[in-house]
Amino acid sequence: MRAVTVREYGGTPAVAEVPTPEPGPGQILIRLRAAGMNPMDLWLASGAWKPMPATFPMVLGADGAGVVERLGEGTSRYSVRDYVFGQFLIAPLGSAGTYAEYVAVSEDAPLARVPSGLDGVVAAALPTAGGAGLALVEQLEPLADKTVLIVGAGGGVGSFATQFAADAGGNVIANARADDAERMREYGAKETIDRRAVALPAAVRQAHPDGVDILIDLTNADAAGFAALASLVKPGGTAMSTNYVADEAALRASGVTGINFVLPMSSELLERLAEAVVDGRIITPPITRISLVEVPVALNPGQVRPAKGKTVIAL
Questions:
Q1: DSSP secondary structure, the chain, as one string
Q2: Which of 102, 173, 256, 306 is deepest in the core (most CB within 10 A)?
């Protein structure tokens, strides 16, 4: 089968021929129809983030949607021809990558059936970004009448988090590009701030001199940058980082709850996420579709990449 792989940490991603996986006992073989791309895919490929042992060549990608083609011995949860989607961040890393034509995973992996009315490409865009957006807002609830600053609201996770936070009653300030402002308002944001045009801390302090109740920072990978934004949170509030740079002890000393968010991925979370999309409560962000052969170029940091929404590989 064809797959996008790296042969070592930091290697150049390339389309290669690799053996088609065989479903072992308790596993299902999925013929992938689409694979969602996420920033973490590059972190994993570079070795910047090593949450688990890896195998090489490493097949990239964690999010995918496809049709169950074969069943391993002893499987009962799914049937051949079931359309499923999920996040396959499974050890050893690279053994269940989704930038590929097939993947074999345990039937107990975090996956769910694609409900009627949900396009497979959309389903592949949901697991990591949508799951994170839903789970982090649920961790912060109740949000009714609270001021919620979301930094990086125009990206994949931000697009979902903005909607879930607004749906939960939060007064969302969306930090996004100016050309995303209308989309953010459609998502329910009460205010938008373009950080490229104004200094974000100064703009927030001017509009909210008493501070905000909640910070959701989806962009800052350095502790100092996150701390500067966390200073906008009033005592009793919460500052959350999705890049694990919140100094929880220091924030606690200032009366603020610090959270380094970890995605609690599960089949149940995926089911609720898909239901929210099918019911129309949540709008999926703009999706850019590319082919498998276009992936190495799309992963090149020197290339111009979509500035908003999600990129999905159509297989």
A1: -EEEEESSTTPPPEEEE-PPP---TTEEEEEEEEEE--HHHHHHHHTS--SS-B-SSEEP--EEEEEEEEE-TT--S--TT-EEEEE---SSBTTT-SSBSEEEEETTSSEEEPPTT--HHHHHHSHHHHHHHHHHHHHH---TT-EEEEETTTSHHHHHHHHHHHHTT-EEEEE--GGGHHHHHHTT-SEEE-TTTS-HHHHHHHH-TT-EEEEEESS--SHHHHHHHHTTEEEEEEEEESSS---HHHHHHTT-EEEE------HHHHHHHHHHHHTTSSPPPPEEEE-GGGHHHHH-TTS---SSSEEEEE-
A2: 173
Which neighbouring-strand residues pair with 222? none
> What are 131-176's pLDDT values in tens digits?
999 999 999 999 999 999 999 999 999 999 999 999 999 999 999 9
**d(C-alpha 103, C-alpha 29), whole Å:** 6
CA distance 278 to 297: 32
